[in-house]
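Annex B, item 7. Sequence and structure tokens for protein A, then protein B.
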Amino acid sequence: MTQETPPKPDTPCIAVCFIDPASQLCLGCGRTLAEIARWHQMERSERLSVMATLHQRMTDAGLPIPAPRKRRETGA
């Protein structure tokens, strides 16, 4: 029996929305205001491309890397 891994979310948002004044990055997800504003208009490939850079851009800006958002379990 193989265990399926849950799909990765299409958003890095962890509902900690605060823009760092120095780096202009969201402290919760690492996106810029412009990226956040157009997130739902972006193609999935563009969103995934941005998401692939977030950890490094937070590191480069000297910002703490937030813990990943926990997925809610649906149970019976």
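Protein B:
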Amino acid sequence: MEYVVSVSPQEVRGEMKIYSCPKSICTHVDWALSDIFQSKIDLDWRSQEIAPGAFSANLNWHGPISLSSRIVSVLSKWPKLRLEVFQDGNGKISGERYAVAPNLGIFRADINSLGETIVTETRLRSALERTRIENEPFEVELAFLLGTPWDEDLEPFRRSHQGSIVKWISKTG
């Protein structure tokens, strides 16, 4: 099923993958997304094989540049959700990747057109400074810059998530 709403001229494409959501909040997630998109959303929830009692779903969308951060901001309030939100770049901005995992919180990174994490000079310098101050190996800081802890948490769910039904939606303003 595809949701269609008028699209603004500064739109981007995005994708949300909910890897694990307790059954008790699936409807609440639909309601929250309906509020964000100002259109009724009923995700096709699928049983998550590796987390009994949990469900997964996908949503592809078109919308304003800041939409991915709004989705993450709203959905991350439920501490048991595992999800990723991707926003494609549009020539004016880099793409974005958000990852949310219990006990880790939110990870955000700019990504290039190949989906690779972009680590800026400023972030690298800050990581080097933290390793000096906290006397920990640079590899630890680098892992956090790249989102490795989130990838390690989400990877089993990603593999189990293959074949989920995808929905498309567009959002204006």
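Comment on protein B: Residues 11-170 form one domain.
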